[in-house]
Write a structure and sequence with these properties.
alpha+beta, 4-stranded parallel sheet, 4-stranded antiparallel sheet, 34 strands, about 35% helix, binds ligand ANZ, binds zinc ion
């Protein structure tokens, strides 16, 4: 009785069995080694897309494989549930963000279950629930206590359409990453996390993350952006103060011809006060504040500035240097002040040209001199000239000597600087975790007492899409009594950046229902031991922010005492999967080239969708969508199905060749899975199928059982069904991964046909891979061959390896 392959009946059946038997429930402890397999959790947009299918299929193969290899696997899922789309939907469709999010979660749960992913659903979390964010609020309070969370006025990227502050990373070429509006600059009081306090550790640790792609580590290092240099104090003429500058080129110190301050630098206004320049400096500061920050980071704009009315002095020569406020100096970097060396810095060069400031060469190329006047700045290292006792030294040596000299004279010091800025976490949005702070006229900034947590998001809210934070308009939320003096006070109405939730969700999974702390330190220590999450899988778009913030947060949680000190890095191994591409472009709604996974599941089944997305390319590479590939995956599964159906009434004997194929395939698939080479593992299964099919008889039960096991991480429903068809009553998902016999591989034999002068004289069983001489020696030992060679000598040998040897005699 043959059943046709019908994924629509097979798949739900096994999903229910897994669910009922709690096959993938994880618990701490036991003798098996733990394995924490994690995919980046989804934003509940309402539907899964092919990117999810791919990401989660990769993770699921790893989780299932490790389980069969005898690991105690944790494979959780949850929802990154705060964020702007819910609020935007609320504005557009008048649904409450909470309701919209819950509905989306429900429908995506159904979709993920239909994919047959081996999640421990009992650990599911959603970051928008107070049971989750209350702990984030607690961590915030602890960070505030330690000065790791603080408030400061700063210029922020403001998107006029989204009416929110954007992180620098959310600004792409001066535009909002979500809605593409031009981003403006606004001064605003903002909450920050002091990630810069961890800059050095975050940087150093990149050298120890051996399981991360080099590309991601490089991006993180560049983002942190360490530069080695010096701070030097330049005395101001007629004052006691000095201007503190940061330079990476102390070797050019003798070429300084002016000074530049950031327009916002407090000294700019202070120095000009009372001089005729005061008004100009103030106006310049206002104008610069409006300038596009992204643009300021490029070099592609006119270098402008104003004279402040005062001069400083080169601390080594006493030479007088006019002080300017300039638009290319950033307040947030270094000290916000620069010693300007126009001969060797292009920005200074352009500025000097604009304002008629002298340009003095102090670095010549090795073995040459510059043509004068310089056409542009010479920024390379070289040999010092016009630099007093340092003249003649190469740049690198001069840097060290000049810094040492300055240190000795007490004029400055060696320093490190980072491009990394503190993490601005304030969002003027409703759908986020409220920041647990109260403002009181008498007491100032007052943290909400721990016992009053969570500060819950009020649900009675109106969305107009206009005029800033909806929270600020809810009187019942805003008006509270001061926790200290009990007088009327106001709540903070900013919510936290949603990157905060995703910076620690992987820890919450360790004890998702724990209600005494963010997580149970024992449970989390168990899952995180030996380097953290064993395998993390997600998109390269998170290479910098999410991964850097998670690393930072993990360190903070250790330092605050929430997390076992054995863990300072969250992710031991990282796999960044490529994008899903169709018709040459990233599959995305905006490109209109989306293939809906639902369609695949309904038409071909989840196993086909999984198999295709794993077979089409290696995980790190982009996956080029093609319909034939899907058809091919489907056909393969159907053939396997038929082969097993046809074999179950009359298994064949377990022949030598069959054993060899089995061992070879188990070895290949095992090794490929260990290296996450899913596509070649599947190709090996396809070859194996062909070999079994071409036997000309039914394969043995052992071969088909191995097949079901090897296939099951990729196509788990099919794996279970075949396993049951083959008579097994347990679950293939819980079976022990097949072992291979290395020796069975080595003694592989072939049939060697021996001819004498083109006529077959013997058929010999011979080890595979014999060379010509060895094959000839073997042939010469055969009695029949010997007879035909008697009295003659071999003039020529024709050898077709593993097939035939022809001895030509005269
Ligand atoms: C003098 C000098 C001479 C410089 C020279 C460069 C070349 P990185 O490598 O990115 O760290 N600088 C310092 N603070 C600045 C600020 N707040 N805004 C804009 N520019 C600033 O760059 C360090 C160099 O950028 C510093 O070294 C300083 O200019 C400038 F031939 O000092 B340099
Ligand atoms: Zn008060």
């Amino acid at each position: 009785m043959k059943e046709p392959y019908d994924p629509q009946s097979v798949e739900p059946k096994w999903q229910k069995v897994w669910e009922d038997q709690k096959t993938f429930r994880a618990s701490e402890g036991g003798s098996k080694p733990k394995y924490y397999c994690l995919e980046m959790f989804p934003y509940p947009s309402g539907r899964i897309h092919m990117g999810h299918v791919r990401n989660y299929s990769i993770g699921d193969v790893i989780a299932r494989y490790k389980k069969m290899r005898g690991f105690n696997v944790l494979h959780p899922i949850g929802w990154d549930a705060f964020g702007m789309p819910a609020e935007n939907a609320a504005i557009e469709n008048k649904t409450h963000p909470a309701k919209w999010t819950d509905q989306n979660i429900s429908s995506m749960q159904v979709q993920l279950r239909k994919m047959g992913f081996s999640y421990d659903w009992e650990r599911e979390i959603a970051t928008c629930r107070p049971e989750y964010y209350r702990w984030e609020q607690l961590v915030f309070l602890k960070m505030y206590e330690r000065g790791l969370a603080y408030k400061k006025r700063s210029f922020v990227n403001w998107c006029p359409k989204c009416e929110t502050v954007l992180a620098n990373e959310q600004v792409e070429q001066g535009r909002c990453w979500r809605c593409d509006s031009t981003v403006e600059q606004r001064p605003l009081d903002q909450w920050f996390f002091k990630i810069t306090a961890y800059a050095q550790e975050l940087l150093d640790e990149t050298n120890h993350l051996k399981g991360w792609p080099e590309r991601v580590l490089t991006m993180q290092r560049e983002w942190i952006g360490e530069s080695e240099g010096a701070e030097v104090d330049f005395p101001i003429e007629g004052k006691k103060q000095a201007i503190k500058i940061f330079t990476t080129r102390p070797d050019t110190l003798y070429g300084t011809t002016f000074m530049s301050l950031a327009a916002e630098h407090p000294l700019a206004l202070e120095l000009s006060r009372g001089t005729p320049q005061e008004k100009a400096v103030r106006e310049f500061a206002e104008k610069t504040a409006k300038m596009d920050r992204a643009k300021r980071l490029t070099d592609d704009y006119e270098k402008e500035g104003v004279f402040t009315g005062v001069s400083a002095m080169n601390p080594l020569t006493g030479k007088k240097l006019p002080v300017y406020a300039a638009n290319f100096v950033l307040m947030e970097y270094g000290t916000g002040a620069v010693m300007a060396v126009p001969a060797h810095d292009q920005r200074d060069f352009e500025f000097a040209k604009n304002y008629g400031i002298p340009i003095e060469v102090v670095i010549d190329p090795v073995g040459a001199v510059h043509e004068r006047p310089l056409q542009k700045a010479f920024e390379d290292a070289g040999v010092l000239v016009n630099s007093q006792q340092f003249t003649g030294l190469p740049s690198e040596e001069a840097k060290k000597k000049i810094v040492a000299y300055i240190e000795k004279k007490g004029m400055g010091r060696k320093t490190l600087n980072y491009k990394l800025r503190d993490w601005g976490i304030s969002r003027q949005r409703y759908w986020g975790a409220p920041i647990p702070i109260v403002y009181c006229d008498a007491c100032g900034t007052v943290p909400v007492p721990e016992k009053d947590l969570p500060v819950k998001l009020p649900l009675d809210v109106e969305f107009t899409g206009k005029g800033g934070s909806p929270l600020a308009k809810i009187a019942s939320f805003v008006n509270v009594n001061c926790p200290k003096c009990a007088k009327p006070a106001r709540r903070e109405t900013d919510t936290m950046d949603t990157f905060v939730e995703s910076s620690w969700y992987f820890l919450r999974y360790g004890s998702p229902r724990f209600d005494k702390a963010p997580f149970d330190p024992k449970a989390v220590a168990y899952w995180m031991k030996d380097g953290g999450v064993d395998q993390y899988i997600g998109g390269i778009e998170h290479a910098v922010l999410h991964l850097l913030y998670s690393r930072f947060f993990t360190k903070v949680l250790v330092d605050l005492g929430f997390l076992d000190a054995g863990v300072r890095e969250p992710f031991k191994n990282l796999l960044t999967q490529g994008m899903v591409i169709k018709d040459g472009a990233k599959m995305s709604k905006s490109k209109g080239n989306v293939v809906d996974p639902n369609y695949l599941i309904e038409r071909y089944g989840a196993d086909t969708a999984r198999l295709f997305s794993l077979f089409a390319s290696p995980p790190e590479k982009d996956l080029d969508w093609n319909d034939q590939g899907v058809e091919g995956a489907y056909r393969f599964l159907k053939r396997v199905w038929t082969l097993v159906q046809e074999s179950i009434d009359s298994f064949g004997p377990d022949g030598e060749e069959e054993k060899r194929w089995r061992n070879r395939t188990v070895k290949k698939v095992t090794e490929d899975l260990d290296r996450f080479q899913f596509n070649t593992a599947i190709a090996a299964l396809m070859e194996y199928y062909n070999a079994l099919h071409d036997l000309g008889r039914s394969p043995s039960r052992a071969s088909l059982e191995s097949f079901a096991q090897l296939l099951s991480p990729f196509a788990p429903h099919m794996g279970e069904e075949l396993w049951r068809l083959l008579g097994r009553q347990d679950l293939v998902s819980l079976s022990r991964w097949p072992a291979f016999d290395e020796s069975a591989l080595k003694v592989e034999t072939i049939l060697l046909v021996v001819q004498v002068n083109g006529t077959v004289r013997a058929r010999l069983e011979a080890p595979a891979g014999l060379g010509q001489d060895a094959a000839r020696d073997l042939a010469l030992k055969d009695e029949n061959v010997k007879r035909f060679l008697e009295g003659k000598s071999v003039a020529k040998v024709i050898h077709v390896p593993n097939k035939l040897i022809n001895l030509v005699v005269s």
